[in-house]
Amino acid sequence: MALSAQDERTVPAVVLQDLEREPLERSLAGMQTLIEQHGHVIVVCSQAAPRGTQQRLHTVRSLLESDRIAVFRPELPPLGLAVLARQLRQLASCDLSPGVLASAGRLLTHYIHAGALLGSVTKLDRVPVDLKSHAKSWMPGSQFGVLAHPVPQLVRIAPGVTLPGPEFGTSMLVAQGQLQSDWVTATLAKSWRPQGLREVALPAESATWWGTAKLIEFCAYLPDLSVLYQLVTSVRQNSCHWCGIDVIGDRCVFCSAVPPTHEQPARAG
User: Fold this and answer.
1) pTM of the entire predicted model
2) Is 258 part of any domain?
């Protein structure tokens, strides 16, 4: 998930490897060190990560009794999540408060188009798949274009078939799995017209997330820091009524508090 830096300002990533297998004391010490060094920690975790990893993150946060750890698990496929993590690393070099930076993840998710070309959808359970597509996936040579985000869609690959893409300028990343095809780099890229196209290594969680190793994952995203910064700073900010940190949206990403509901006074009868 730690993609190479987009520019010289991109903040380096800290990869929490084998979190569920290391001793709890080491996890606690490592997270405490990060908090002492940086003040706040934003953890971006894939929903395809092992359950033990997710449990360990919440255990560490609970035992440290810290409101300075935000755990963010958006419903993005692994390559899209890696892109989002890098965008947050880009923004971390700007004059954004920790709460606004962490909240920006939910905002920027809406501008990511992520999907994959699959050789089978028989084990795909994260995108709606009808029975007809399941039946066709058993046919030799069948391939499917799947858009997981922002609006799930599935098509069977045929000449000229593509998927709806972004209506704004983007760059595109492609990660090659155990599937041979030029559909993504030729047909899809021609339709989406990205400003740039680069190949990267396939994330470790991709085969688990998509239900097959026979895939080519792709993601279109906003690459420019100036555009990302303008998007984030154009949104109204609120102060969390519980911990006081500035955030975007209603729920605080660090203490999880939501604004109190004010009950309307009862009318006199």
Assistant:
1) 0.88
2) no
Q: Report whether 229 contacts 213 (CB < 8 A).
A: no
Residues 39 and 63 occupy one common structural domain: yes
The vertex-78 CA angle with 151 and 168, nearest 5°, equals: 45
Q: Same structural domain for residues 122 and 35?
A: no
Sequence-distant (≥ 6) Cβ neighbours of residue 196 within 8 angstroms: 171, 172, 223
Task: Give whole-number Cα distances, 214 to 117, 128, 139, 184, in Å.
Answer: 8, 19, 15, 14
Q: What is the CATH number of the domain that holds 153?
A: 3.30.1180.10
**Which DSSP category does 176 fall into?**
E
118 shares its domain with 216? yes
Closest CA relative to residue 243, chosen from 33, 36, 34, 40:
40
pLDDT tens for the chain, residues 1 to 269: 678 877 778 888 888 888 888 999 999 999 999 999 888 899 998 888 888 888 999 899 888 877 888 888 898 999 999 999 999 999 999 999 999 999 999 999 999 999 999 998 888 888 877 656 655 666 677 899 999 999 999 998 988 899 999 999 999 999 999 999 999 999 999 999 999 999 999 998 999 999 999 999 999 999 999 999 999 999 888 888 777 888 888 777 887 777 665 444 445 44
Q: What residues have CB less than 8 Å from 247, skipping those under 6 apart?
A: 99, 100, 102, 103, 237, 238, 239, 240, 253
Do 168 and 94 fall within a single domain?
no
Cα-Cα end-to-end distance for the chain: 61
Q: Which domain holds residue 61?
A: 24-111
Phi, psi of 263 (to 5 degrees): -75, 140
